[in-house]
Design goal:
Keywords: Cell cycle, Cell division, DNA condensation, Mitosis, Nucleus. The chain is mostly helical and 1246 residues long. Helix content is 69%, strand content 0%.
Length: 1246
Amino acid sequence: MDMDMEDLDADDANQPLSALLSELQLLVSVSGGAASSSDPPPLSDSLLSGLYSHLSTSTGPSSLVSRLASVDLSLSSLLRHLSSSIDSTSVKPSLLASFAYLSLLLSPSAPLVSLFSPLHFLSILRSLRRSLKNQATSSPDSTKQKPKSKAHSKSKSSSKIEQNRQPGDTSNFIVKVLGLISDLLTRIQLESYNDTRKSLIDTISEIMGSSHYQALSNSCFRILRIIISESGHGDRGEATVEILRSLAPLMLLSIKSPVRVGVIGFIGREIVPLGNEDEGVKKSLLFLPRFLANKAPEKAEPRACAVETILEITKVFNGEELLDFVDYVVKLAKGKPKLRLLAVDLILGLLNISKESDSGNSWRVVCLKALVERCSDTVAGIRARALGNIAQVFGEMSERREEIGMEGFSDMVRRRCSDEKAAVRKAALVLVTKAMGLIGTVDASLLGVLGSACSDPLVSIRKAALLAISEVFRRFVDVNVTHEWLQAVPPLIVDNETSIRDECENLFLELVLNRICQFTDPRPSGSFASSDPLFSESLLHLLKGVSDGEVAPFIKKICTSLGKKKKLKPFVATSLQNIITASNLMRHAPEGAWWLLAEVSLYTPQAVDWGFLSHHWKLLGDAGRKEKVCGDDGEMETVLWARDRVSLLNTISNVSMELPSEPAAELAHSLLSRIEQFNMHLSEVDAHIKSLRTLCKRKAKTPEEGNGLVLKWSENLVSKATETLNLYLSEVSETKKQSDFATPQSGSRTKGLKTKSPSVSAPDIMQQAVTAVFTVGSIVIVCPTVDLQGLIPLLHTIITSESNNEPRLRKLSATTVSFKVVAPSLYVQSWATMAKICIADDKTAKRYIPLFVQELERSDLAALRNNIMVAMADFCVRYTALVDGYIPRITKSLRDPCEVVRRQTFILLSRLLQRDYVKWRGVMFLRFLLSLVDDSEKITHLADFLFSTILKAKAPLLAYNSFIEAIYVLNGYQAQSFSDPANELFAIKGMDERSKLKRMHIYVALLKQMAPEHLLATSAKLCAEILAAACDGLLNIDNATGQAVLQDALQILACKEMRIQANSTSDTAEMDEEPVADGPGAATSAAALALKGRIITQVAKKNLIQMAIPIFIELKRLLESQNSPLTGCLMDCLLSLLKDYKNEIDEILVADKQLQKELLYDMKKYEEAAKAAAKGNKGKNVVEERCKSVLRDVNQCKATPPLSAMSLPKVKGHLTGQSGGAGPSRPASVLDSVRRKQSFESDEES
C-alpha cells in the first residue's frame, strides 16, 4: 500500500514536467524538427513560466535534461528555441528564457563546453540591458496620463498596479540571471572570447548605474571579481583596463552617491591587492587617475566629484608613484583651459594629502609654484580658482617662503587685486587676508590697491577688501598702513550695505579703540625721564589720523552708531583721559586725543571727570596760550591749542548734564565774556556758542526759559558785533577820505615819508571785525530768530564793495573802498555770514542769491568760491525752485582752476543729484563727463565711482541717450544743435594724442554702462548721425573740429568695448564664476541668455551689412576724393568691424570689390604679423612695421614690393592686359599711379 502511494506521489510530481515535455514535443514537431528549422520559433509565455517554475527547484535542471531523451528531444534544440525567446522584445519572457537557458546550460549532465555559444550569451546580455531601458522609460509614462472615464480609470489603475509590481519582479529575475552568469564564469573560460568579456563588463557597469543598484550590486561586483581573479578569462591587466574604463563614469557621480562609494570600495578591496601581485593590474591602476582627469566634466560640482575620486585613488600610491602623478598634474596645468582648471583643484588636494603623509616636501614646492603660475592664467576663472586654492594652503607656509621662491609674489597679488574680473579681485583679496605671513611686508602700491578696492562697485569686493586691509593693519602698524586704513575703512560707514557698515564698526572698535585702551603710563610713580618715549609712534599716528579733516566726519558717524548701539564702553573715555593727563609735561596733548574724547564723551558722560575738565580748562586758558606761543613754532602751537580748546568745549557740552549747577553757571559766564571780546581764533567761536547754548538749555528749568536765555544773549552779541563792525567801517572810510583828499607829495619830499594805508591802520580792529562777523554767522545757526536788521546793511556794503569799485561806479562815490583789497578775510567772512542769514531768512535769500552766483563766476579768491559753492548747495536744498535756473552757471565750477573747488563742486552736486534736488538734464551730465579725465586723481576716482555705480543704477539709459551729443560737445563742435557758448569750457579740442586719449577714456566709460542692445543702437546712431552726416555734408569735415568728431566716431566703432558679445553679462553676474546648481531653472536661464545673445549677434550682423557698410563705402569715396588723412582711420575701423566676418567679406562688400581686396590684403598682413609675434622670430618693432597696411607704406614713399610677391590686390597691366608678371618689368607710370592713389598717415601720426 505504501509503495502504491509513493508511486502515486511521483506521478503527481511528474505531471507538470510531462505536460512541459508534451508541449515542447508538439512545438518541435510543428516547427519541422530541430534539424530542419533555421530560425526556430520562440516558446510561449505559459511554457516559459512553466520552465521557470520547474527549473527554480534544485533538481529541476537535471530532471528536465534526463527526461528530454525519453521524448526524443535534444537539449541543443531546446536551447535554440530558448535563444529565440531571449531575443523577444518583451522584458519578462526574455528574462525567463535567459534564466532557463543558463539553468539548462549549468545542468550537471549538460555538455557545457560544446553547448556554450558566445552569440547566445550576447543575446542574454542584450536582454539584461533591454530590461533596464524598458523599465526606465515605462515607469515615468505611467504617471503622466490621466483616466478619462471610470472604466478607463479601472484599466489604468490595474495596469499601474501591474507596472508597480513589475520592477520588483524584474529585479528578482535579473538577480537570478546574474547569479547564473557568475556560476557560468566559474565553469567556462572567456580567454578566447574577448568581445564577449568586454560586452559583459559594459553590461555590468550599465546595470550598476541603474536604479536597481542596491539589489544588484553584490551580484555585479561578484562577476567583476571573478573576471579579474580567475585565470581563465584572459590577461588580468587587459581585463582590469576594461573594467576601470567601464566603471569610470560611475566614479564621477556625486560624492554622496552609493554607486560611486561602492565602486571606489570595490577598487580598494579587489583591484588594489591584485595590483601588488600583477604588474598589469598595477599599471592599470596607476593610469586610472590620468584617465579620470581627461574624462572630468567642466561644471563645478561634477568636477569636484572627479577631483575627490582621483585623490582617493592616489592615496594608495607610494612615494615614487605619487611623484609621477604630480609631474603629470603639473604638465596638465599647462594644457587646455579645462585641464588647467582641473589641475588647479588637483594640486590643492595633493597639497592636503602631503600634510597627512610623512613624505618629503620637494614635490609640494613644485605644486605650489605651479599653482602660483596659474594665478596669472589667461582665463579669469582659472586665475580666481588658483588664488582661492592658494588662500587655503598658504596659512601654514609662512616659514617656507624662501624654499618656495616667492620673491615676486607680492607683485602678483597686487596685479590680481586690480584685475579686470571681479571674481579674480575677490579671490586675491581673500588671499591677502589669509596669507599675510607669506606676503611679508606690504608696499605702498599694494596698500593703494587695497584701499581702492574698498570703493569697488561690487558689494562682495568691498567686503573682501575691508577684511584684507584690516588684516594688514592688524599685523603692521606703521605710518603708511595706518594712514591707508583710515582713508579706506571709515568711509565705508556710509555704505549702502548693512553688513559692510556693521563690519566697519566692529573693526574700528577692535583696531582703533581697543588699541587706545591698551595705553599704560610707562613712568614710575611721579618720575619722568626725557629719554623714555611716553607714547608709541603707532599710537600717536593713530590719534592724529583719526582727527584728520577727511576722515573725521566718518569717525564721527562710527562713534555715533556705536554709541546708539551701546558698544562704546566708559573705559575708552577713561583711557583717553589718561593719555591727556600723561601728556601734561609735554607742550600739548597728542593730536586727536581731545577730539576723539569729545566724540566718545557724548555716549559715556559719566566716565568724564569734572575735575579733569576744570583743570584743563584753566590749563588751556589765556595764561597757557601765552606760554605756548613763545615757542619757535608759535603759529602752529596756537592752532593746536585752538583745536584742543574746541574739543574740550565740545566735551563739556556733552557732559553738561553731569556738571554741578554753580560750576556750570561760572562756565557759562566765562564763555559769554570770551565771546564778547571778539578776539578768539575763528575755530573756537562756533564751539563757544554751541557750548553756551547747550548749557543754557540743559540747565534751564523749562524749554521756554532756555530759548529765552539763548535769544537774550544772542541779541546782545549781535548788537556788540554791529557796533564793532560799524566802528571798523567808519575808520576805514575816514582813512580813505584822508588819503584821497591829501595833497600828493612830489619829488624828493616824499622820500622817507610813510603814507597812511587803511590796510594797516588798525589791524586789531579789523581782526575784531572779522571775528564779530563770523560770530554773527554762528549765532544765526543756533538762534535763527535773532534780529539782524542793523547788521545786514553793513554786510551788504562789504560784499558789494568790489562791484562799486568799478570805474563806472567809482565816479559816483569818491569814498568807495574795496574790502577785497583792504581786508580780504573780512570780505570772505561777510559772504559766508550772509549765506547763513539767507538760509534763515527766505526774503533775504531771494535778494542775494543772484549776487552769490555772480561772485562765484568772477571771484579770483579760491576760498571765497569754495564757500559760495557750499552755500549754493544749501540754497538748492532750501530754495530748490529759486536756484534751479542757475544750475548751468554753478556747474562751471567743475572746471575751476583750483582743485579743491572742483572737488568740492563735484561732491556737492553729486549729493544733490542723488537726492533729486538737481536732475540729470540739460548740460549737467555732459559737464560731469570731464571729471573722468580731471588732472586730480582724487576727482577721477570719485567720478569713476559715480558713473560706474550710482549713475548706472539711478539712470541706466542716460549714457545711451546722451552719447552722440557728448561726442559733439567734447570736441567743441559748433552747430545749430550744439551752439551753447558755455560748452567751450567743457570741450577737449584738438587732434593731439593727449586730447584724443582723454575723449576716448570718456567714451569707453560710457560704453561700459550700456547693455548689448544699447551698444547695438549706439552703433547704428553713430553711423546714421555722424558718418552719414559727413557723407551728406551736414557734418563739416573741412575744419579740424569736424574731422575730430568723425575720427572719434570711427575709433568708437572700432574699440573693443563696442563689440557685442553673445554672453555679455553684468558685473554682478560675473561674480557667479560657476553655477551653483545645474537644475532646470539654471538651464532655462542659461538658454534664455544664449538665445538673447544669438539674436543680438544676428541683428548686429544685419545692421552691419544693410546700414553700416553702404555708409562706409560712400564715406570712403568722399574721403578719397578729398585726400583726407582720415581714410586710414576708416580702414582701421573697417578691419576691426569685419574681423569676425572674414569668411563673409565677399557677401558684405559686394558693392565695392576694390575695398574688398584691400581689406583682405590688410587682414592677411595682420595675420602674418600675429604669427610672427607668436613665434618670437622678430622684435616688437618689426611686428608693428609688418602690421602697417600697404596704403600707408605708399604714403611714406617706400618702395612698392614686386607685384609677383603680392597675392592681393593685383594690378592689371595696361599694355599686356595680363595680371601678374615680374615687378621690375612693369611700366613706371603704373607704379606711380598706385603710389599717388591716396595719402595716409603713419601709425605714429594717427
